[in-house]
Design brief:
Blueprint: H1 2-9, H2 13-24, H3 29-45, H4 49-65, H5 69-85, H6 89-102, H7 106-125, H8 129-142, H9 146-155
Helix pairs in contact: 1-2, 2-3, 3-4, 3-5, 4-5, 5-6, 5-7, 6-7, 7-8
Length: about 160
């Protein structure tokens, strides 16, 4: 698994896919949540969005089955991002709004912030800059990590 992460970090996509796929065969079901998520990210980075959607949906289903709310939120954010990249803006907005409305714990607040941030990016792509600025500000109100704040200010 670690080798897959290292390969993904260095954009060695084929190696990352191989390491993650090999790991899937030997880990417990609950551990597969993260592997499926990582596979989705590799395919997303390769702009293979349909394949990525499949992996994120599998990760989401397992995370839901094992009641891992953080992993559910992470997968939903990635699904919303892909919907936006495919210009499925209504579907993307619905996904992000569901994350925002489900925010109940301190650990899920950052995912609500990321939902606002990515929703703002969608509005920017559609040239609705006033809505985008408002959504970026909503994200900033939720973020505590300087990295998230920095990226949001940069995008804004």
């Amino acid at each position: 698994m670690t080798l897959g992460y290292i390969a993904k970090t260095f954009l060695a996509h084929e190696h990352a896919l191989g390491y993650y796929s090999e790991s899937l065969a030997i880990v417990d079901e609950e551990v597969k949540i993260g592997l499926l998520y990582n596979l989705g990210n590799v395919y997303k980075n390769m702009e293979e969005y349909d394949i990525a959607l499949g992996y994120f949906n599998k990760s989401l289903a397992l995370a839901d089955q094992f009641n891992q709310s953080k992993s559910v939120s992470r997968a939903k954010v990635q699904l919303g991002i892909i919907f936006g990249r495919k210009a499925w803006y209504e579907r993307s907005e619905s996904q992000f709004r569901s994350i925002i409305s489900e925010t109940k714990t301190k650990s899920s607040i950052k995912y609500a912030g990321r939902a606002y941030h990515n929703l703002a990016n969608n509005y920017m792509k559609q040239n609705d800059l006033i809505s985008a600025i408002n959504l970026f500000n909503n994200a900033l109100e939720l973020f505590t990590a300087e990295t998230d704040q920095f990226i949001t200010y940069m995008d804004m």
